[in-house]
Every structure is written in structure tokens, then in C-alpha cells.
Amino acid sequence: MTDIIETERLPLSVFAEKAYLDYSMYVVLDRALPHVADGLKPVQRRIVYAMSELGLAAGAKYKKSARTVGDVLGKFHPHGDSACYEAMVTMAQPFAYRYPLVDGQGNWGSPDDPKSFAAMRYTESRLTAYAATLLTELGNGTADWVPNFDGTMDEPKLLPARLPNILVNGTTGIAVGMATDIPPHNLRELAKACIHLLKHPGAEIETLMGFVPAPDYPTGCEIVSESADLLKLYRTGLGQVRARAVWEREADTGHIIITALPHQVSGSRVQEQIADQMRAKKLPLVEDLRDESDHESPVRIVIVPRSNRVDATQLMTHLFATTDLEKSYRVNLNMIGLDGRPKVKNLREILVEWLDYRFATVTRRLNHRLAKVNDRLHLLEGLLIAFLNLDEVIRIIRQEDEPKAVLMRTFALSERQADYILDTKLRQLARLEEMKIKGEQDALAVERAELERLLGDDAALKKLIGQEIREDAEKYGDDRRCAINAAPPAQAMSAETILPAEPITVVLSKAGWIRAGKGHDLDPETLSYKAGDEYGLHCTGKTNQLLILLDDHGRAYTLNPRELPSARSQGEPVTTRLDLQDGGKIVAMMLGDASDRYVVGSTEGYGFVVRLEALQGRNRAGKAAVTIGAGAGLLRPSKLTGDDAQVALTTAEGRLLLFPVAELPELAKGKGNKLISLKGQDRILASCVLPPDTPLALVCGKRTLTLKPSDLAGYTGARASRGSHLPRGFQRVDQMAPEGA
Fold first, then answer.
1. What predicted TM-score, i.e. pTM, was given to this entire model?
2. Domain spans of the chain, in order of start
3. CA distance 300 to 503
């Protein structure tokens, strides 16, 4: 009662800290992390042990999984049945475990949906042959036994694993403040590394990696991690492993066949990812996609290229980068060591520590057998005395009140020997022969000598351990499934590479609805528009070029022309793709290569040359491009055709000025330099870039004036000069462009 009161009087911070630490230690040590000795978490260990207690060995008849789960929960693991059954299912799935511990019958899930397994009342199970490596020596005095949760029976603290199961099957888990991700490995490779380590205790990690070069996943993918990354992984216990699908190209059809997927990758999910790209017209290199998987070929995904000219390697590299056909796996070799503490260990530390455990296990097994042999020899010695003096023994048993004491006194027997003689039936004593007893004694004496020799010679014991590892690896192991071919991370092909460049016309209405049509012969003014709306702007180019939009505040916005709605529709508001700042309105569009140069400026008489790539923005809000003063507007951008071109400007006063474009600076953004000298409220009405020796066409209302190159000489001057007056009647210029443009 006093303890309860003291606990209730603890400060909340102290109580909460202690309770959380207790919970954390429980999760770390008794739930989430595996032990280096047998590579199992407590729930897995209890499932395997409970199945062995039910007699569900590899050759036994299957039993309902619900029976196993019931025994595990009722005897050893008082937790949820669904979590327990799920742990059991994982140990039975050949695509999840490299060497499964449970042999399942029924629906145990599929690689496409590992969680699609049937309920435990429908499935049946037993242990696999490989599970014997964890259980064979359990009854030979090799395990420490601890009480179960209610103290009614004992369970093994650890299983006497004959192989390094911690790396053979690996595991994943999340504890409090730490996690573990141990990949599976090839059993025979690990066995060779262990045998080498027994012979050469000082072997370095680089040497051990000659035997264990990389993980070996159950699905048989291709490991493409660089050797330096794998070395770092095994040296530190932390890192990543990159794996790719295995594929080939059929010589006769040219089809690409995927025959193996990375670990834990769903085939249907991969097909969905490829199909999404095909529907979005982002994968024109692929004509068709089929799933031809069956029982004989569990994975057979067929990709039909559009033609035999398609580079299969380049296409697959793109798919590796954009789908789950290439996957990276986090590796964290965190486990509970023989000292009972969690730690991230490297490859050498894991194998050395497991071999220490194996050395101790074999020593306990031999000592246990030696004690059995000595005990049997002791009993046989007493039995031989009884046989040689059978009449006297019978007399003592028949006539003496305490035959046990008399036997011990008469023949100098121990209490154990006397009990054994008294428990033996008379007819068995009569049937025993001296030669049989001595023959068994001789055989046991030879065995005892051998056991004592092994226990007294570490080199002989190591040789025995190595031989057992070699035999088990040969019996339960197999060849490596995952080929190792180092390759850099896959890079997706750019849209320009993978998609053909097609001519396109981008149209923007006055109300701000944008769309795009194929070809350059599209007449944007004949398109249908919403009621009250009409044609505003258009530009032509190719689908692989850069589309830049400028608003009346001088901000630049970027759109992908491939993603614009079709011109057959009425388009969509540009504001659904852009966040126009301060109520801006799009007043200009440019479509061209990133290196194309344009002359931009404001109606207040300032401008500069800018490359299209400098205007490219990364978000919907765009970026500041042209600085425009209050009351001024944006000049229509003019594409620069060469450094020998001229800039032509007309003003509201009716003046025209031409000057070399080379006099303008090239900037990424800003106000620029003065283009033309303006007086009072004068402003620029129109502008264009004029190639050399090209007539200039001016549109004034319904009238057009064409100035020949010889006529333009009178209007040519220096940048920032005022220019010359245009002829009467043509001083209010609405549009200006090179003739024929």
C-alpha cells in the first residue's frame, strides 16, 4: 500500500519519463528488433517454437493456421491475433523471405498484393525443412529457458541456429527511436564467409565481401549499386542498395520482356505506371503493354516498342527512372547483440558475433551429450554388476526389506545405479548378455573420448562447426538469384528526347482562355470563342520549345505547350495554371528555343535584349522580368534575327526611329537602356526588329505605308535620339512589322 501511495505522489514528469523509457525498452528488446543469434524477433521465435511443439515439422501433416496462432497467443505471446498471423504469413511468403520458415497451403498472398492472404481459419501450415536449422539442437541443452508471460511453462530465450539466419533472411522493424532494415543474403555465400572467418579470424570486410558481395533478394532482380556503395554499407552497417528489373529483347519480335522485378515491387503497379505515361502521351516509343505472367513464368511483362528502331536500352533506362522497375532499399543493420544491447553492426561484427554464439552453442551441445554418455556408462556399469551377480540380486530383492540399501552396500553401487537396477524388469535382466553390455560400453567410451577431444581442442571444435555449416549450406542453400552489375542511377529522358517535336500554334483570347492547335496554318481568328470573348494573341513554334507569357506588370510566366488543352475546345482560363500577380493580364506570348533572343521594353522608352531561358520561371507565380513605370505599358516582344538587325520604334508624336540592335545591352531582367527620347506625355506606340535590307510596313487604321530600305535612311539614328516625323496621315501607327512578316 505504501508503494502505491509513493508512486501516486511522484511528479508527473518523473513518472511519464520512467513509463516511456520502460515502454521504449520493451519495444526495442521484445518486439521490433531481431537478435543476432537466431535472427528472429520474439513473435517469430514463438511462432516457430509453437509449431515445433505442435509437431508441425516439414514432413508432418498440415494444420489450420488458427491452431498455431491460438497456441502462440495462449501460451507465449499475449498480443493481437492479426499481428501474429501477419508475422506468420510473412515467414511463409517465398517472395518476402529468401528461405521461408513456414510452408503454407492455401492463399498466402501474392507479389502484387502481399496483404491479400486468406484468413487464418482457411489456411493451413507447417514448418519448412530450413526451419530445422533453428530447432534441431533445441533439446540438446543448447538453449536458455525462461518462464512465459504467466509463468505456467517455459519458452526458449533464443533458438540454437545452425546458420546465420540474421543475414540469411533479414528483417525489417520500427522501434522507439530506432529501426532495422536487414536485407536477405545467399545462404551458401554466407556459409563460405563463416568458414573463411573460422580459418582466418583476422579477415577484413573487403575479404569477406569476396564471399558475400551483395544482398540476394528472393525475387531475383539485378543489383546495380556501385561497389564503393556496397563496401560502405557492409563497413558501416548503413546505406542503400539499388535494384532493377531483369529484362531481355526478343530477337524475332523485338519485344521487351521483363522477367523479374525488384523486391516488394508489384507487377500490376509497374504496368499501371507505364500505362499512365502512355495515356498522357508521354511515352510514344511504346505501342503496347501486355501481362503474360502465368504459373510457369510468374513475371512476364511484355513491352512492345513502336518500331524496331527504338533503342531498347534507352527506353528501359527511362522506365527505370520513372517507374518502380528500379528501386532503392534502405539498409540498417541494427540488431540486438549477445550483450543484450541494440547496435548497428558491420558485416564482420555480425559474422564474428554469430560464430561466437555458434561456438558456445556447440560447446553446450557437446557437454550435454557428454553428460548423457557418462550417465549411461555409469548405469551400464551397475547393470553389468547386476548381470554377473544375478542370483544374489534376485535374492536381495525378494528377501530384504530395503533392497536398495542392501544392493548399494553389497555391490558398492550408487543410488542412481541401484534405482536403475530395481526399475529394470527381471526378464530384461535375464535377457541381457554380458557381451552386449560391454559392447555398448565400448562404443560409449569411444564417443566420450571423441567428445572430450573436441571440447579440449578449439581447432577441432572450429573444424566441426565449419563442417556442419558446410553440410547445412549444401542441404538448404541454392545459387544466387540476383546478378550484380554496377550501373549509375537511371535518368529519365527529357521530353524533347522522348517526344517528337511538332509544330504548334498557341492561342490566347482577350478574356484569358488559352489553348493550342497542331500546325502553323491554324487561323486563330476563325476559332470559336465563348460568348463575349474574342481572339487576343497567338504565337507559333514547336511543342519542345519554351512558352513564355508576359503580363502588363512585366512579370514572366512559363507553361509547357504540350500540356495545353486542344484548340478544338474553347481552352481553359490561364489562371488555372498561373497565379497572376496584382491583377495582371497576359499581354504578350513568346514560343521558341531557350537560346532565342528578344527585344523587350516599356512604352515609356526603355528596353533591353533578353534570352528566353532567362525568363523561365519555376513556379506558378512567375518572376519579375521587365520593369515598367506607372502609367506605362509593355512593348510587344520582338524576336532578334541577328546582331546586324535594327530596332524600329514609332511614337505618339508620329516619329520613327531605327537604330542598331547591337547598341542594346543583354540583361536577364530590369528596366534596360533608353530606346528613344520622349518629350512630355509622348510614348511608344509600336516596335519591331527589322532585318537588314528589309522594307518596313506600317499600319495606320485601314491604310498601310511601306518604307523601302532607301526610305529608312532618313529615320536611322543613334539609340536614345528622337527620330524623324512620319508623313502626314501615317503618324498614328497601330502596327509595325517587316514586310511579309
1. 0.74
2. 20-181, 246-324, 364-471
3. 38
